[in-house]
Amino acid sequence: VEVVLADAFRFVEACGDDRFDYIAVDLFRAGERPREALARPFLRAVRRIAVANALVAVNLFHDRRIDST
After folding, report:
1. To which H or E segment does residue 52 belong?
2. Contact, 51 vs 18, CB < 8 A?
3. So what's the pLDDT on residue 63?
4. What does the pLDDT look like over 27-61, one tens digit per residue?
5. What dihedral angle (degrees, nearest 10) is formed by the CA atoms of 37, 4, 48, 59?
6. Claim: this prediction has a pTM higher than 0.85
7. Nearest Cα residue to 45 out of 18, 5, 67
8. Phi and psi (nearest 5°) for 30?
9. Cα end-to-end span (Å), the chain
10. What are phi and psi of 15, to 5 degrees?
11. What is the C-alpha to C-alpha distance for residues 69 and 67, in angstroms, rounded to an integer?
12. Distances in whole angstroms, Cα of residue 63 to Cα of each of 13, 37, 66
């Protein structure tokens, strides 16, 4: 197991030929998920670095109790 703590957007672009069988996408800034975390360019990059039959887990947690509105 290798845990990487890095800027996810830069990391997936810098992977080159590296491939992964498990990818966890858990991206929040100040309690909110950045828009680009679910944008097509990032998701395509995640798919590119995932091996066939990889497990990709995306944290989509939302808690109404902490809404800013």
Report:
1. strand 50-58
2. no
3. 62
4. 877 677 888 888 999 999 999 999 999 999 988 87
5. -40
6. no
7. 18
8. 50, 40
9. 39
10. -70, -20
11. 5
12. 30, 18, 6
Q: Which two tokens stand for residue 38?
A: 């679910």
Q: How many residues does the chain have?
A: 69
Cβ-contact 25, 58 below 8 angstroms: yes
Amino acid at 2: E
What is the b/e burial string over 26-41, where b = at least 16 CB atoms within 10 angstroms of the residue's CB? ebeeeeebeeebeeee
Helix (H/G/I), strand (E/B), else coil: 50: strand
Task: Using the structure block, give the residue that is written with the tokens 């944290």.
Answer: 59
pLDDT of residue 54: 96
Q: Which residue has the tokens 């990391």?
A: 11
Radius of gyration of the chain (CA): 13
Beta carbons of 39 and 9 less than 8 angstroms apart: no
